[in-house]
């Protein structure tokens, strides 16, 4: 029986390995992590992450050929294939701070693999890493290997949170990069055989190592760029009376462009887009390509601009002051169908409103109060955007309440900001909400989920990104 071990039981390691275990009953899969509560949660009925369909997949194979453990070294030692899916955040200090990927976790995983291995292994980069990381990992492994043969593959993950299980069941493509040596090619075939259990051969792409590593950064940069492009258009729509939904539809009808990923919003979030673009910027700079770096930087600048534009719109519409006004925040996760709040635009929007002394009442169906308090307290590093630089003061902390119901959040509020596109926000009883709010009652829709005309009929003053403004 082939044995797989995955280091890192997070948003990628957990779901990816659960699907491999489900689709490959002849393979034993162990997901290991140094985080004890996380592994305990994977072994319980309360999984550590919310992802539609995940519970079901885990239930079907946990205890059969899928295991979660904190005994990292034992399971790495026993594995034939070791996936490494540890976090690769942006460096916060030292060389490349604010841009370069922090490979501390990766390096310590690689050193541990070299240390505990007693047999040949295929080591798979599942984390998103800078191009050429495999070269560094190879050095670490071979210099510490005691004669053991390690083959490094790059197999970046393209799943999107919120649709991870569907994405893993039917991936647009599986990408495997390896060395062009006989050993490298043999390793590619071994990993291909795993995915061939359910992915059609035509969807498994093999490349050299550097193409695979760079493709992941490129894919995220292209996706984020599309969002920033439509968001840039949304600002122009508001200035001219055009409607961004109509513009996106017309543009997306061109088959060369296509309709997906053209929704204007308060901005992109999540743990990947910004970090991976920053990483791309850094790689361009290191390779003497400042103009290319500048091009990709703009994607983040527009995203930051969109968030501050939203905050400014809220404050300006509410007679230039939100001081002591209650503002309901509907949605805190960075997108629907996830409880993940990493880099969510809601953080910047709330910090902006708190900075102007508003009181925010936050409701999200999947986000806990602890997460919100932590996110709003952290003072994030950022190169040149002022919104990020406002830590939450103890006074500001008192201005934040977290509630478990949209009606509670909006009661007596002066305004509602919709920051995540949860389906339930489309069908709320907005008449009831209006009746219980201060007047005039404002709605600022950062995700284009509400029916503007209906809300205006009720009496709301409505602002929706990229749409003609209320008269
Ligand atoms: P995560 O933070 O949710 O999980 C990473 C896990 O690795 C943590 O639980 C941590 O405790 C563990 N870990 C770190 N060092 C370890 C070590 N030495 N030994 C054992 N465990 C260790 O991160 P994630 O969201 O799963 O992302 C992982 C990687 O996948 C990142 O590089 C990310 O960029 C990439 N990625 C993420 C997504 C996404 O949607 N989240 C999608 C594609 C790719």
UniProtKB/TrEMBL annotation:
Q: Return the EC number.
A: 1.1.1.22
Q: Which Gene3D superfamilies match?
A: Cytochrome c1, transmembrane anchor, C-terminal, NAD(P)-binding Rossmann-like Domain
Q: Provide the reaction this enzyme catalyses.
A: UDP-alpha-D-glucose + 2 NAD(+) + H2O = UDP-alpha-D-glucuronate + 2 NADH + 3 H(+)
Q: Which UniProt keywords apply?
A: NAD, Oxidoreductase
Q: Where is the active site?
A: 272
Its top-level enzyme class, in one word, is oxidoreductase
Query: In the UniProt record, which is one GO cellular component term?
Result: nucleus
Give the binding site residues for NAD(+).
Answer: 8-13, 33, 38, 86-90, 127-128, 161, 272-275, 342
One GO term under biological process is: UDP-glucuronate biosynthetic process
The GO terms this record gives for MF are: NAD binding; UDP-glucose 6-dehydrogenase activity
Q: Which domain of life is it from?
A: Eukaryota
Pfam families in alphabetical order: UDPG_MGDP_dh (PF00984), UDPG_MGDP_dh_C (PF03720), UDPG_MGDP_dh_N (PF03721)
Concerning SMART domains, the annotation shows:
UDPG_MGDP_dh_C
Q: In which pathway does it act?
A: Nucleotide-sugar biosynthesis; UDP-alpha-D-glucuronate biosynthesis; UDP-alpha-D-glucuronate from UDP-alpha-D-glucose: step 1/1
Similarity remark: Belongs to the UDP-glucose/GDP-mannose dehydrogenase family.
Protein name (record): UDP-glucose 6-dehydrogenase
């Amino acid at each position: 029986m082939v044995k797989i071990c995955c280091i890192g039981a997070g948003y990628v390691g957990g779901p990816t390995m659960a699907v491999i275990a489900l689709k490959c009953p002849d393979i034993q899969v162990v997901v290991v992590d140094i985080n004890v509560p996380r592994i305990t949660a994977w072994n319980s009925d309360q999984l550590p992450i919310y992802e539609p369909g995940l519970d079901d997949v885990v239930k079907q194979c946990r205890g059969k050929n899928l295991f979660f453990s904190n005994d990292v070294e034992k399971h790495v030692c026993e594995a034939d294939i070791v996936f490494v899916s540890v976090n690769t955040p942006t460096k916060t200090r030292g060389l490349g701070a604010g841009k370069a990927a922090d490979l501390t976790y990766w390096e310590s995983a690689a050193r541990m693999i070299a240390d505990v291995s007693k047999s040949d292994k295929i080591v798979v980069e599942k984390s998103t890493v800078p191009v050429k990381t495999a070269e560094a990992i190879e050095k670490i492994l071979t210099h510490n290997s005691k004669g053991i043969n390690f083959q490094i593959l790059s197999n970046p993950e393209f799943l999107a949170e919120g649709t991870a299980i569907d994405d893993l069941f039917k991936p647009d493509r599986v990408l495997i990069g390896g060395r062009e040596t006989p050993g490298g090619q043999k390793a590619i075939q071994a990993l291909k055989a795993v995915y061939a259990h359910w992915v059609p051969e035509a969807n498994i792409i093999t490349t050299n190592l550097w193409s695979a590593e760079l493709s992941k950064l490129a894919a995220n940069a292209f996706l984020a760029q599309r969002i920033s492009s439509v968001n840039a258009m949304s600002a122009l729509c508001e200035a001219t009376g055009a409607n961004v939904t109509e513009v996106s539809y017309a543009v997306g009808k061109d088959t060369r462009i296509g309709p997906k990923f053209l929704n204007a919003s308060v901005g992109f979030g999540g743990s990947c887009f910004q970090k991976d673009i920053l990483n791309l910027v850094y790689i361009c700079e290191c390779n003497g390509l400042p103009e290319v770096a500048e091009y990709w930087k703009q994607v983040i600048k527009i995203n930051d601009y969109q968030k501050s534009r939203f905050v400014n719109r809220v404050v300006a519409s509410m007679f230039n002051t939100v001081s002591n006004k209650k503002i309901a925040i509907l949605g805190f996760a960075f997108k629907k169908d996830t409880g993940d709040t990493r880099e969510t635009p809601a953080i910047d929007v709330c910090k902006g409103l708190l900075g102007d002394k508003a009181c925010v009442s936050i409701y999200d169906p999947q986000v806990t109060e602890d997460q919100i308090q932590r996110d709003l307290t952290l003072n994030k590093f950022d190169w040149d955007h002022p919104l990020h630089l406002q830590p939450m003061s103890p006074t500001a902390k008192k201005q934040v309440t977290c509630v478990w119901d949209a009606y509670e959040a909006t009661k007596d509020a002066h305004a509602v900001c919709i920051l995540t596109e949860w389906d339930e926000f489309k069908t709320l009883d907005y008449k009831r909400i209006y009746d219980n709010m201060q007047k005039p009652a404002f709605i600022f829709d950062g995700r284009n989920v509400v029916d503007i005309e209906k809300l205006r009929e009720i009496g709301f003053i409505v602002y929706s990104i990229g749409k003609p403004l209320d008269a």
